[in-house]
Specification:
The chain is of the alpha/beta class. The protein has a single domain (about 5-200), classed as P-loop containing nucleotide triphosphate hydrolases (Rossmann fold). It is about 50% helix and about 10% strand. The chain has a 5-stranded parallel sheet with strand order 2-3-1-4-5, with helices on both faces. Helix 1 packs across helix 9 (about 185-200) and helix 7 packs across helix 8 (about 150-165). It is globular and about 45 Å long. The relative contact order is 0.23. Bound molecules: cytidine-5'-monophosphate. The site of cytidine-5'-monophosphate has 15 residues, from helix 2, helix 4 and helix 8.
Length: about 200
């Protein structure tokens, strides 16, 4: 049986961690849709054409650890503004969402555009300072010089671009359950998400 869990939210809100844990708990497949835009952004950063890249993206490219870098994040959100890039990535995401056995997709527009009929929808948020602190700790591993203020400014710029674009902006679906992870441990946030999904089963 198909069962789709749509998890949206801004950068570093905790949605990726929650999505992985929810997928593991229910035995569902998981797709981090941000990686698709990062895969496109990475190659556009090297001078390739966004639409051509989006139409020819292959799964192996998405395993490249460089896709997680700060510069790629900005390029990902720049290519994500383009409606033709979003359209090229749509069918793959929808097919993944309806696979038998259940699927969890996390991103920005899963509950609103990709899977408006998803059986369960979550919108995960956290304060700017909490999100920047998390992302800063993560990025320090590969870039020991990076400052908290740079990470905070980058996150805010990306949130603004993601929320203000006209194609599939970052907005909560009306029927999404909201989880603010600012003052929650990972375990608490995951437990809240699992119980929200279980209620929809
Ligand atoms: O989630 P992540 O931070 O990896 O996403 C990178 C960028 O990809 C986001 O800032 C956003 O611009 C874009 N994105 C999107 N729609 C999604 C997932 C990601 O526009 N469903």
């Amino acid at each position: 049986m198909a069962f789709t869990v749509a998890i949206d939210g801004p950068a570093a809100s905790g949605k990726g961690t929650i999505a992985r844990a929810v997928a593991a708990h229910f035995g569902f497949a998981h797709l981090d849709t941000g990686l698709l835009y990062r895969g496109v952004g990475f190659r556009v950063m090297q001078g390739e054409d966004p639409l051509t890249v989006a139409q020819n993206l292959v799964a192996e490219e998405l395993e490249n650890p460089d896709l997680r870098g700060a510069q790629v994040s900005q390029w990902a959100s720049k290519v994500a503004v383009l409606p033709e890039v979003r359209a090229a990535l749509l069918d793959f995401q929808r097919a993944f969402a309806r696979r038998l056995g259940g699927a969890v997709l996390d991103g920005r527009d899963i509950g609103t555009v990709i899977c408006p009929g998803a059986e369960a929808k979550l919108f995960v948020t956290a304060s700017d300072a909490t999100r920047a602190g998390r992302r800063h700790r993560e990025l320090l591993r590969s870039d020991p010089e990076i400052t908290f203020d740079t990470v905070l400014a980058d996150l805010r710029e990306r949130d603004r671009r993601d929320s203000e674009r006209s194609a599939a902006p970052l907005v909560p679906a009306e029927d999404a359950v909201r989880i603010d992870t600012s003052d929650m441990s990972i375990e608490e946030a995951v437990a809240a998400a699992i119980s929200a999904v279980a209620e929809r089963q």
